[in-house]
């Protein structure tokens, strides 16, 4: 694998998980479990939406963490630990410091 090649299947997997997030948040409005929490909840609820929200949430969030770990490991392999830490500092630590109240 060349140094500049992009793994398109990772992008596709992340996009699919993001699109499932739309389904997840839409289902929250009709879920009996979340009807007290969700501000725009519809009074007509159904138990199927509980199943959808719980199922999607069980694998969608861990999937994001797995993708993040995979991409982090890939970045370390392609460059070095120092470059990885510099990259993370620029993309995570710096915005956190700038926007911290």
Largest sheet: none
Q: What oligomeric state best describes the polypeptide chains here? A: single chain
The number of distinct structural domains comes to 1
Strand content: under 5%
Q: What is the residue-averaged pLDDT?
A: 87
Number of strands: 0
Contiguous uncertain segments of 5+ residues: none
Give the end-to-end Cα distance, rounded to a whole number of Å.
43 Å
Along the chain, the helix and strand elements come as HHH
What form results from the Cα inertia axes? Answer: elongated
If helices are DSSP runs of H or I spanning 4 or more residues, what is the number of helices? 3
Radius of gyration: 19 Å
Q: What structural class do the secondary elements suggest?
A: mainly alpha
Give helix % range: over 70%
Supply the key terms:
single chain, 101 residues, mainly alpha, 3 helices, 71% helix, elongated
Briefly summarize what is shown.
The chain has 101 residues and is mainly α.
What does this structure look like?
The protein has 101 residues and is mainly α. It has one domain (8-99). The chain contains three helices and no strands. Helix 1 (8-28) runs antiparallel to helix 2. The model has no long low-confidence stretch (mean pLDDT 87).
Please describe the topology of this protein.
Elements (H helix, E strand, L loop, with lengths): L7 H21 L18 H32 L2 H19 L2
């Amino acid at each position: 694998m060349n140094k500049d090649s992009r793994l398109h299947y990772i992008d596709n997997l992340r996009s699919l998980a993001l699109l499932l997030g739309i389904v997840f948040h839409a289902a929250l409005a009709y879920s009996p479990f979340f009807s007290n929490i969700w501000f725009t909840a519809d009074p007509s609820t159904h138990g199927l939406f509980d199943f959808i929200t719980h199922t999607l949430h069980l694998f969608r969030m861990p999937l994001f963490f797995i993708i993040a770990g995979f991409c982090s490991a890939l970045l370390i392999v392609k460059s070095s630990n120092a470059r990885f830490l510099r990259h993370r500092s620029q993309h995570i630590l710096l915005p956190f410091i700038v926007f911290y109240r």
